[in-house]
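Protein: OLC1v1016172C1
Species: Oldenlandia corymbosa var. corymbosa
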Amino acid sequence: MASGWRKGLGNVRSFIGNSMGGLKGTANLASWAVAGTLAYFLWVKPSQQLKKEQLERAAMAAADPNRYIEKRKPIPDPQVTGLIRGQKKNSTDESQE
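Structure follows.
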């Protein structure tokens, strides 16, 4: 019976080794280090930076709501830009008539 659990343990180790691409030793460690570094710089760091910027914006808005200015472009009016056709309402036209 002692050989039964050893064989099972060997099968598990073999499965884990094969699932990691069959690399052994320092090559395995190096590939995990590269993968971890890429994951950090592509996913973890940008999400942490986004959360930090959101907290900073919220703190600025809470400190003085009149002073805080959102840094994005305003959405243009589709009627003025010509995307929607129809009669434009201009206050200058009414005052000239």
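Remarks: The first helix runs from residue 2 to 19.
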